[in-house]
Amino acid sequence: MNPDNIRIVLVNTSHPGNIGGVARAMKNMGLGRLYLVAPRDYPNEQAVWRAASANDVLDNAIVVPTLNEAIGDCQFVVGTSARERRIPWPLLDARQCAARMAEASGREQVAVLFGREDRGLTNEELKVCNLHLNIPTSGEYSSLNLAMAVQIVAYELRMLSSDNETPVSDAQEWDAPFASRDNMERFYTHLEEALVDIEFLDPAAPRQLMSRLRRLYSRVRLDEMELNILRGILTETQKWVERGKNSER
Amino acid sequence: MNPDNIRIVLVNTSHPGNIGGVARAMKNMGLGRLYLVAPRDYPNEQAVWRAASANDVLDNAIVVPTLNEAIGDCQFVVGTSARERRIPWPLLDARQCAARMAEASGREQVAVLFGREDRGLTNEELKVCNLHLNIPTSGEYSSLNLAMAVQIVAYELRMLSSDNETPVSDAQEWDAPFASRDNMERFYTHLEEALVDIEFLDPAAPRQLMSRLRRLYSRVRLDEMELNILRGILTETQKWVERGKNSER
């Protein structure tokens, strides 16, 4: 595990005190990289006060206007989520998820996204994630404070760093680097374009098609070579559509 | 485990906001019994504000002047502690300790003590404990916020509670059945055929292409609906190849 490759991304945080609380929770557990996507009220002295001796984490925090700018170079993106979502997605609890993140952080950039205090991450934001993370809570009151949620995830990561046993998975000795978020987005754009070209996707009635395909490919975590193969297939397919259209002229 | 037999005891808390944060952290994890030993500034609206929807926990909190009154009827007392204490004492991390507390709570009254924000529990207070609990932290900044410490212990207890359906995973509660081996083979045959049709795959020099694609799709575990989408795309693509070839005749 390499904590320097793990970033905490807070999306549209309302309360600056929570940002400070997050910074402290991170530093307590040995994490240092904080991204703030369009915070509502920041900088703010409440953040500084709650950060206590973690002001360096706040000082180094990167504020960006969009989620893409926070995670564009990441190969592994985790979104925190309530349990009941409409489209099922690979969902693990914080402990299982921390194991996956720790492992990936050895060779990849990893991001964990935390949503708004009042309504979490949007479905659009959740769809860019490879994995969803759920923190088990009581059914009677399941809404965790934002900084508390970060604390639990950071703690689970910490428990792995002091452990000697490194969790293993099939991803460990992969022969090509995994695709970055930016390249995945380019692929989805290309895919959508090609599906419109072959008239499989009707832009006027797209239904759930692209969501389903996004879910499929984010589940698999494509490596760069696979991405090149798939894009090559799309390009060849589009050439045939051109030829086919010429035949009808 | 019986959460009704577990109480959280805060000793000499300075900041009322932390008391509210503790109440919320407890309720989120299914704990309800809070004892406040000589809090410095309580009741206070900061506590109410930070408790959010856990006001019932605050309302039911028992305020006592001495530690003995908070734990007199307990059979099992755990004290949170930094790692370096002068007096050697049985010391476990939060996870191990939660397991012991959960077990004891089946038949005994269990208390977990959390000390002052600035200097924790005194040696006198630690001596009344059966066990000391330490939360692993980074050596660079080991001082956890009080409510965060309670959150982690409550979370570890939650992870042990039996009514905790662990949300898993890649397979459970998926919205479509996973594809059978036979259907996967039919898909690979169709895929290979289509790649030859669009002249992306040269049957005379196939290289590793199909192996790579097989590896990709077997990694993802396709469900039947996804398989249908992918086969639909292949069929449409093949139609365009037909049209394109006609144009060249």
Note down, in words, how this protein is organized:
The structure is a homodimer of 249-residue chains. With 249 residues, chain A is α/β, with parallel strands linked by helices. Chain A folds into two domains: 3-162, SPOUT methyltransferase, trefoil knot domain (Alpha/beta knot, 3-Layer(aba) Sandwich), CATH 3.40.1280; 181-247, Helicase, Ruva Protein, domain 3 (Orthogonal Bundle), CATH 1.10.8. Chain A has helices at 16-28, 45-51, 55-59, 67-71, 94-104, 123-127, 146-162, 181-197, 209-220, 224-247, and strands at residues 6-11, 33-37, 62-64, 76-80, 91-93, 110-114, 131-134. A seven-stranded parallel beta sheet of chain A has the order 3-2-1-6-4-7-5. In chain A, α1 links the parallel β1 and β2. In chain A, α1 runs parallel beside α7, α5 (94-104) packs across α7 (146-162) and α8 (181-197) runs parallel beside α10 (224-247). Chain A is elongated and about 70 Å long. The interface between A and B is large, with 69 and 68 residues.
Task: Describe this structure in a few short sentences.
The structure is a homodimer of 249-residue chains. Chain A is α/β, with parallel strands linked by helices and 249 residues long. Helices cover 47% and strands 12% of the residues of chain A.
Any key phrases for this structure?
seven-stranded parallel β-sheet, 249 residues, alpha/beta, Alpha/beta knot, homodimer, 7 strands, Helicase, Ruva Protein, domain 3, 2 domains, 47% helix
Distance between the termini of chain A: 59 Å
What is the beta-strand fraction of chain A?
Answer: 5-15%
* Global Rg of chain A: 20 Å
Number of helices of chain A: 10
Oligomer: homodimer
Fraction of residues in helix of chain A: 40-55%
Q: Enumerate the strands of the largest sheet of chain A in spatial order, edge to edge or round the barrel.
A: 3-2-1-6-4-7-5
CATH topology grouping of the largest domain in chain A: Alpha/beta knot
Q: Mean of residue pLDDT of chain A?
A: 90
